[in-house]
Amino acid sequence: MNLELLVAEHLWLTLLIWLAAYAGDYYLTVVGARRFRAAHPDAVGKDSYELTPGMEDDVDHLRWISRKFLVMLGGSGLFFTALWFLAARAVLPRSAFLFLYGTLLLRQLPILVRHARNLAFYADGTATSRPPRWIVLRASGVELVGWASAYLFLWGLTGSWVILGGVGGPLLAGHDQWRLASRARRATEVGRVAVDH
After folding, report:
1. Contact (Cβ atoms closer than 8 angstroms) between residue 82 and residue 88
2. CA 47 to CA 59: how far, in whole Å?
3. Which end of the chain is least crowded, N or C, by CB within 10 Å?
4. CB 17 within 8 A of CB 108
5. Which pLDDT does position 111 carry in this prediction?
6. How do residues 8-17 score in pLDDT, each as one tens digit?
7. pTM above 0.85, yes or no
8. Using one digit for the tens of pLDDT, what is the confidence trace for 62-83?
9. How many CB atoms lie under 10 A from the CB of residue 159?
10. Other residues' Cβ atoms within 10 Å of the Cβ of residue 186
11. 156 and 140 in contact (C-beta within 8 Å)?
12. CB atoms < 10 A from the CB of 24, how many?
């Protein structure tokens, strides 16, 4: 039996996988921020480790319990529960449920891989430099679009609705990161011009 079928038939598994991925993202972000601070104490208060604007304050304060995170986790759990019941009652096609699940779930996979890379990079406190924020955001956008491309290739091989949904999540997030990178770059250039005058 494949995982896609198991997720479509068992709500508990749908929620367990989502909970693990989403909570893993938040808590690995806090651990990564702590290691980043140890490697870059001069960056505290200047540059957030967190790339998602709405979560910067919680991560910057290294909050293990975050109201925003808990609201997002609970809301997304309710969202998936509602979709699952609609699909189970044949009000919503099962393929639509799997597509939407893949859109959100497979957006988390590249982020979890990035966390593992960052934790290894900052593991011993010897990492001494970090590119400007706009470069980090742009690289993130490129990386997410790369993941979307890989998912599209895998969808072509498998025909999986979850994987097809996975194309959209990283693609939209990558576009958002690129937009944030452009904004951060302009802010950096404006700051540089102000200092020069």
Report:
1. no
2. 11
3. C
4. no
5. 92
6. 888 999 999 9
7. no
8. 999 999 999 999 999 999 999 9
9. 9
10. 11
11. no
12. 14
What is the rounded CA–CA span in Å between residue 185 and residue 123? 28
The Cα diameter of the chain in Å comes to 67
What ranges do the domains of the chain cover? 3-196
Helix (H, G, I), strand (E, B) or coil at 127: coil
Question: Which pair of tokens denotes residue 113?
Answer: 């891989």
Residue with tokens 């969808």: 155
Question: Position of tokens 């009652």?
Answer: 89
Task: Tell me the pLDDT band of 44, cut-offs 50, 70 and 90.
Answer: low
In the chain the beta strands, taken as DSSP E runs, fall at none
- Of the pLDDT bands very low, low, confident and very high (cuts 50, 70, 90), residue 48 is confident
Q: Which residue has the tokens 């250039």?
A: 189
